[in-house]
Design goal:
With 426 residues, the protein is α/β, with parallel strands linked by helices. The chain folds into two domains: 1-328, ANL, N-terminal domain (Rossmann fold, 3-Layer(aba) Sandwich); 333-421, 2-Layer Sandwich (GMP Synthetase, Chain A, domain 3), CATH 3.30.300. It has helices at 13-16, 20-41, 43-52, 73-82, 119-127, 146-156, 169-179, 188-200, 223-233, 342-349, 383-398; strands spanning 71-72, 100-103, 107-110, 134-137, 160-163, 183-186, 213-216, 236-243, 247-251, 259-260, 265-270, 284-290, 300-306, 308-309, 321-322, 327-328, 333-335, 338-340, 355-365, 368-377, 403-406, 419-421. A six-stranded mixed sheet has the order 5-4-6-7-8-9, with helices on both faces. Strands 1, 11, 12, 13 and 16 form a five-stranded mixed sheet that branches. It binds zinc ion. Zinc ion (ZN) is lined by residues 253, 255, 260, 313, 315, 317. The site of zinc ion has 6 residues, from loops.
Length: 426
């Protein structure tokens, strides 16, 4: 393909760059519409509101969603068992559905045409995909929705697809070479594996493989790994985040630095204990409300932990960004009112090469939480220097004061939990 500018562009510029106040009003209006629709058509949504003593008219603004409990994924399985096949969550007649997906659980999910709004398409354009791209879709097409959602959404922007699925690496490589595939969709690790395969087949990744842009998901993407893949293939790689049920919930633009929420869905970050929205920038559970008229999920919990960043982005999109996904909510520990996740603790310790291994121990002292980093050190480490630096890093990353204890080698049990919560509650 001729050189294309993949570094900027929008699917719908007016909507994606809307003034933040107008955007809030837009979300409030869409919320009112979808709640009225879901209450009338989806018995489980009606039940959720009725049990909370909330009328559809009480949910006028995004803040009002806090009047409702969060529906966790595990509850879907139970809802569907009681009221098969969709647990009363689908607001369209079953004969209108185009596809039905089977996700682990099992959870049955409607794959109706209207299930496909343009959120993945926004993500593709932001990632640098353009009309005319030929995309190799290497996610699994069987049973689960993700690959099919992407395939349909690529069509929406005028790109063509090769629905490959997983496996068959030699055929995938041959196809990329023969057809001049310009775009990759899959996990970062599978892209690396295809690169290895191509090289084993005697191909040159820059000359024989014409990949220009990649869309990755479903795996962590360390920056070092991204940089390695981008350099190896000479391509742009951007990532996205969503769930099988709710679809796309955020995506990177060319500028990176977090993942924009699509303009047309609501993402809240909530305290997993109380369901209350946290302050901007604070971590909590990603909870979404999507405006899909077939499958209108209202306050649906992802179980994933992240935070929202409302800073301006040079790309021009005004929607906030999710910072990276920090882990699962069921792994967090609350210390002095703040959520501490193993991934954050690792990020603290990762700044210091002299720490060989560590464990965070949480205890109570006179009704106050105490968080202590037990660290084993490399021989010869200057402890007097390390201690204040480590304490500063704990404060910086976790926003909570932490104690530091240097322990003898072998003290931290191998395979131990990163956070050992020893508090006893009576
Ligand atoms: Zn941006």
């Amino acid at each position: 393909m001729a050189a294309i500018d993949r570094t900027k562009g929008f699917l719908d510029e007016a909507m994606e760059t809307m003034d933040p106040d107008q955007h809030r009003e837009y979300l409030d209006r869409e919320l009112q519409k979808i709640v009225a629709h879901a209450y009338a058509g989806a018995p489980a949504v009606k039940d959720k509101l009725d049990r909370a003593g909330v009328a559809p008219g009480d949910l006028r603004r995004v803040e009002d969603l806090q009047k409702l409990p969060v529906t966790e994924k595990a509850e879907l399985v139970e809802l569907q068992r009681r009221d098969p096949p969709f647990g009363g969550l689908v607001a369209a007649p079953l004969e209108q559905l185009r596809r039905i997906f089977v996700s682990p659980g099992p959870i049955y999910e409607p794959g109706d045409q209207s299930y496909l709004d343009n959120r993945w398409a926004q993500a593709f354009v932001a990632a640098g995909f353009r009309a005319g791209d030929l995309g190799l879709v290497t996610f699994n097409f069987n049973m689960v929705p993700f690959a099919n959602m992407l395939d349909d959404s690529l069509n929406m922007i005028g790109a063509k697809t090769i629905p490959m699925g997983v496996g068959n690496r030699d055929i995938q490589v041959q196809t990329m070479k023969d057809l001049g595939v310009s775009a990759y969709l899959g996990t970062p690790s599978f892209l690396a594996a295809l690169g290895d395969k191509a090289e084993a087949m005697g191909l040159d990744l820059e000359k024989d493989i014409k990949l220009e842009v990649g869309f990755v998901a479903a795996e962590m993407l360390p920056e070092s790994f991204r940089a390695e893949l981008e350099a190896r293939f000479g391509m742009i790689i951007r990532q996205s985040y969503g769930t099988a049920d709710a679809g796309c919930l955020s995506f990177e633009c060319y500028q990176k630095g977090g993942m924009h929420v699509p303009y047309n869905c609501i993402v809240e970050i909530v305290d997993p204990d109380t369901g209350r929205q946290v302050e901007p920038g604070q971590p909590g559970e990603v909870v979404c409300t999507v405006f899909d008229r077939t499958y209108p999920l209202i306050r649906f919990g992802s179980g994933d932990l992240s935070a929202l960043d409302y800073g301006e982005c040079p790309c021009g999109r005004t929607a906030p960004k999710l910072t990276r996904i920090m882990g699962r909510v069921d792994q967090v520990t609350k210390v002095k009112g703040m959520f501490i996740h193993p991934g954050q603790a690792r990020a603290v310790v990762g700044r210091f090469e002299s720490i060989k291994c560590f464990q965070v121990v949480v205890t109570r002292d006179r009704h106050k939480d105490v968080m202590t980093f037990h660290c084993e050190l490399e021989p010869g480490t200057n402890m007097a220097e390390l201690e204040p630096a480590l304490k500063a890093a704990i404060q910086d990353v976790l926003r909570v004061r932490g104690e530091v204890e240097f322990v003898a080698p072998g003290t931290v049990p191998s395979g131990a939990k990163v956070i050992d919560d020893r508090r006893v509650w009576d």
